[in-house]
Design a protein that fits this description.
Layout: E1 4-8, E2 12-13, H1 20-38, E3 42-50, H2 54-63, H3 67-84, E4 91-94, H4 98-113, E5 117-127, E6 132-134, E7 140-141, E8 147-148, E9 156-165, H5 171-180, E10 185-186, H6 188-199, E11 205-206, E12 208-209, E13 217-218, E14 221-226, H7 228-233, H8 235-238, E15 257-261, H9 265-279, E16 286-290, E17 293-295, E18 298-299, H10 310-317, H11 319-328, E19 336-338, H12 340-369, H13 382-403, H14 407-428, H15 430-436, H16 438-459, H17 464-473
Parallel strand pairs: 1-3, 1-15, 2-3, 3-4, 10-16, 15-16, 17-19
Antiparallel strand pairs: 5-6, 5-9, 7-8, 9-11, 12-14, 13-14, 17-18
The structure holds 5'-O-[(L-methionyl)-sulphamoyl]adenosine.
The site of 5'-O-[(L-methionyl)-sulphamoyl]adenosine has 19 residues, from strand 2, helix 1, helix 7 and strand 15.
Amino acid sequence: MTQRYYITTPIFYVNGDPHIGHAYTAVAADVMARFRRLQGRDVWFLTGTDEHGQKVEAAARLAGLDPQAFSDDISARFRAMVRSMNISHDDFIRTTEPRHKAACAALWQRLEAAGMIYLGHYEGWYATRDEAFYGEDELSIGADGIKRAPTGAPVEWMREPSYFFRLSAFAERLLALYEENQSFIQPASSRNEVMSFVRGGLRDLSVSRTSFTWGVKVPGDPAHVMYVWIDALTNYLTALGYPDEQAERMAFWPADVHLVGKEITRFHAIYWPAMLMAAGLPLPRHVFGHGWWTVEGEKMSKSLGNALAVQPLIDEFGLDPLRFFLLREMPFGNDGDFSRRALINRLNVELANDLGNLAQRTLSFIAKNAGAIVPVRGEPQPADWALRDLAAGLPERVAAAMDRMALQEALEEIWKLVRACNAYIDHQAPWTLRKTDPVRMASVLRDLIECLRVIGILLQPFMPDTMAKLLDQLGVAATARDFSALTEGLVDNAPLPQPSGLFPRFVEPV
Ligand code: MSP
């Protein structure tokens, strides 16, 4: 049976426009989803928008719109952003959809029936911006005399009737989960942070609000709306057809990976598994918390006005180079800086010079000097074996890195072969062999394009359009581009189309 793979992005808040930080989560999940599809897995890939809560209600008011009209507008912008990033999601969920409200109500009732929800009062320091309560010990007072959460968000004292979820009952079981499944929370820095938080003891979680109305109503008590995180986390089940547990797509549960930003790992690694345990539902297999981008050394923020929209970047640098940069620049899980200089440098060095040039000089040389057909291999020499071994072992090394979600490492492995090919072509010098030993020249060129085929197939998840172009130029049939075709080879003497450049060098406009 085909192995299933369910991957999710966080659902994006509709309180502001999409920017490169959101695109990052989506691209990383997209690369994982595409990679698993090429491995032959049956993939379900979910993204969408998180539309309820006080923050959205407030943003809508500011814009002079009702929250639904406001959410419709911003949700459509996120949909456009994921389309322009070439994200291959299978479903785009919105938390204002009837299917989601039904799922939230059903999960709530299940928790209530299990005795996991009770009515009480909540008072405490609340930050609207973060949609979260903070303990007194977490707060600081700024120079402006305003009390703030560690995130910098201002807090205010709130007291209201509230339903509570018995989170405190789950600390031991959560710790046991993290111990038994060491890779449940990745990377290790997130795991440590979550574990020490849980070891510090868990309080019951306030899961309803009466102070505003923009949310999913609590079943049987419409004065309350559900806390936005309870509502939001449920989306991962809604999309599979929950509460209809017989729904075909429910076979994708539990999720293989919830890919999230590091600041929301806590919600996914504590609240969510506790809710699922309380409801008697299977737990996701992994929660991965990726790092954050700064822009030219600064935190991206509305007030600084430095949040980068994706379309201008795509227009200027091209989509695939942008996708590449996002995953290449730092180890997946770490923070990084999005600077124009770093971006141009990566594009020119690794794409234009290393890979683009390799493909261009090999393919145009074949077009001009080897009859524009797939050259035939001759007697191998030691240098050929070294290159062939490197290429043959590459798929396994890349897959191992991807299994750990080490996306940057996967790219680095592929680039080792790209660089080896460049060294090989320089040493073998087919331009000299053309006059001295045409049989050997053909063999060298063939080894090079076999490597390019492997590189092109493995890079498809990262740069789908450009790699389709490369594989076209290599004459690789559309049916021979998944990973099961990696061990196949090109066909002797098959005609090759006219090559054209893959990655133009970026020159700063003067
Ligand atoms: N709505 C919640 C998630 C609910 S999931 C059940 C949320 N939304 S968000 O729009 O604020 O963030 C969505 C994703 O974008 C998060 O994974 C977050 O980490 C990511 N990013 C937002 N800004 C970012 C950067 N500057 N850098 C990298 N990723 C960042 O949280």
